[in-house]
Design brief:
single chain; about 190 residues; mainly alpha; Rna Polymerase Sigma Factor, Chain: A; 11 helices
Length: about 190
C-alpha cells in the first residue's frame, strides 16, 4: 500500500515537472509506463512501424497527456492508456484504409520472379467513353495548317528545316505553333 502511494505521489510530481518543461521527468514517466507501452505495441500491428516508432509516439502522447492532464481529476494511467490506444487504433485505421489496399497486396518484381508468379490475365485497361480515333479526328479538325505541320514535325514524319523552308517561317513561329498544338491536344484528348 505504501509503495503505491509513493508511486502515485511521484507520478503527480513527474507530471508537475513535465508541465514546467523538465525533459528528464518525461523520460521517467515513460519508464513508469513502459509495460503499458509494450502491451499496446504488442496488441496493434502497423506495417512499417518499428519499436523506435512506437517508443517515439508513446513519448509524444505521454508528454501531451501530462500537459493536458488535470491532477485533481481521475488517474493519469487510465488517461494515458486511453490516448495511447486511440492513437494505435488511428494508425491501424490509416494503415488499413481502402485506398491503400493495393499497396499491401503488391509484390515486388524480384519476389514475383523468385516465386514464378505470372501476371494476371484480367485486363485493367479502362475503355474511354469516346474512342481515341474520334478524339484524334476532332483534334485534327481544330488544327491550322501550321499546327498540323508542327504535329508532323513532332511525330518525326517531316523535318523541322523542311517545314521552315516550305512555309517560309521562323523557328519561333514553329515553336509557338507547337505550344498551341499542345494546348489543343490537352483540351481535346484529356477533357
Amino acid at each position: 500500500m505504501k509503495n503505491t502511494e509513493t508511486n502515485i505521489k511521484s507520478e503527480a510530481e513527474l507530471i508537475r515537472q513535465i508541465k514546467n518543461g523538465d525533459d528528464e521527468a518525461l523520460l521517467n514517466l515513460c519508464f513508469l509506463y513502459k509495460p503499458l507501452i509494450n502491451k499496446v505495441k504488442s496488441l496493434y500491428h502497423v506495417r512499417y512501424y518499428d519499436s523506435q516508432d512506437w517508443e517515439q509516439d508513446a513519448m509524444i502522447i505521454c508528454h501531451d497527456s501530462a500537459i493536458s492532464f488535470d491532477l485533481n481529476k481521475g488517474k493519469f494511467g487510465s488517461y494515458f492508456k486511453t490516448r495511447l490506444i486511440n492513437h494505435a487504433r488511428s494508425l491501424v485505421r490509416y494503415d488499413n484504409a481502402y485506398r491503400r489496399q493495393a499497396l499491401k497486396q503488391s509484390v515486388s518484381l524480384e519476389t514475383a520472379k523468385k516465386n514464378n508468379l505470372l501476371p494476371l490475365d484480367k485486363s485493367f485497361v479502362s475503355i474511354p467513353e469516346i474512342p481515341l480515333s474520334e478524339n484524334i479526328a476532332i483534334l485534327t479538325s481544330k488544327l491550322s495548317h501550321l499546327e498540323t505541320n508542327a504535329l508532323l514535325v513532332g511525330l518525326g514524319v517531316i523535318e523541322q528545316k523542311e517545314v521552315i523552308q516550305k512555309l517560309k517561317i521562323s523557328k519561333l513561329t514553329l515553336s509557338r505553333a507547337r505550344s498551341r498544338l499542345a494546348q489543343k491536344m490537352r483540351q481535346t484528348l484529356l477533357n
